[in-house]
TrEMBL record:
One Pfam family in the UniProt entry: Bac_luciferase
Lineage: superkingdom: Bacteria
A GO MF label: oxidoreductase activity, acting on paired donors, with incorporation or reduction of molecular oxygen
Annotated protein name in UniProt: Luciferase-like monooxygenase
Length: 333
């Protein structure tokens, strides 16, 4: 038996050269509304800090804006970097969101800093926060679950909301933790694909059922750059490659228009292509073939479409084409 593939959208809320955070927020809401109309299951934003081209640092605040401007699409974090925060505070924030927008909030969790070493120091983050990540996830679950006799601290609001948790990662560590806790697992294959195969194997092998999830549930992030003309898709891809090239070179800057040529060294090109190899680029039929290949490779239950782009309208169109393709794909029931 087969069933229709679930598909969702991850937005890093790009800030373009000459633009502002306000512009980026308006674009994010516009994209979320188009995603809702196009059938995407959820719209996630990810916690990042001290990155000029990314405007989603205050994740739960931004989620309130996005949820308030849409009607039915699930709004979530992809993710909140839990070691940066006290679990109680996240429970209260997401309990508030769930109370405002019942049945529409997702809480994706990661353990990376979402920024560089100076940023980690500014957030008062230390190694203990990371080492305690499994306990912090369980503590958060407790705050969002039903009241327990003798419990001294309660998340108000939050307690009893049972906001669904998703564990995000790019390693076998996160996969095994998600399996142990019985949580859905989302792999960051859109920028760190190296351990994808082994992580999914371990997740499925060691999965333990939970109240939230009775069977393994795999979400795979894919860069999707679609257009009505092949040349435009290639232009979008150059813009994506330029962003990753800046990462490789240690440059942090607002998003620039796609260049006509990248001017990269051979080793830089190899590194960028390694990082972005889980991508689908082209017109609809080409994107479909690439996504089918990725699904055959991963047996994913859900595709998380993502990709930054300088031109907002072309980005919206890309995700609309992607939705048309994704809506026609199936997975084993």
């Amino acid at each position: 038996m087969t069933q229709h593939l679930q598909y969702s959208l991850l937005d890093l809320v790009p800030v373009i050269q000459g633009g502002s955070a306000s512009d980026s927020f308006r674009n994010a809401l516009d994209l979320a509304r188009h995603a809702e109309a196009s059938g995407y299951s959820r719209f996630w934003v990810a916690e990042h800090h001290n990155i000029p081209g990314v405007a989603c640092a205050a994740t739960s605040v931004l989620m309130t804006y996005l949820a308030g401007g849409t009607e039915k699409i699930r709004i979530g974090s992809g993710g909140v970097m839990l070691p940066n925060h006290a679990p109680l505070l996240i429970a209260e924030q997401f309990g508030t969101l769930e109370s405002l927008f019942p049945g529409r909030i997702d809480l994706g969790l990661g353990r990376a800093p979402g920024g560089d070493t100076p940023t980690m120091r500014a957030m008062r983050r230390n190694r203990d926060n990371v080492d305690h990540f499994p306990h912090s996830v369980q503590e958060l679950q407790g705050y969002l679950g039903d009241r327990v006799a003798g419990q001294e601290v309660h998340a108000i609001p939050g307690e009893g909301t049972k906001v669904p948790l998703y564990l995000l990662g790019s390693s076998t560590y996160s996969a095994q933790l998600a399996a142990k806790l019985g949580l859905p697992f989302a792999f960051a294959s859109h920028f760190a694909p190296d351990h994808l195969g082994e992580a999914l194997r371990l997740y499925r092998k060691y999965f333990e059922s939970s109240d939230q999830c009775s069977t393994p549930y795999v979400m795979v992030a894919v860069n999707i750059l679609a257009a009505d003309e092949r040349a435009e898709a290639e232009r979008l891809e150059r813009g994506l490659h330029q962003q990753f090239l800046n990462m490789v070179r240690g440059r942090r800057q607002e998003m620039a228009p796609p260049p006509d040529q990248l001017g990269w060294a051979k080793w830089e090109e190899a590194e960028v292509r390694r990082m972005t190899r889980y991508s689908a680029v082209g017109v609809a039929d080409e994107v479909r073939d690439q996504l089918v290949s990725i699904l055959e490779d991963t047996q994913a239950d859900e595709i998380v479409a993502t990709a930054q782009a300088y031109d907002h309208e072309r980005r919206v169109r890309s995700f609309q084409i992607a939705a048309d393709v994704l809506a026609g794909l199936t997975v084993a029931a």
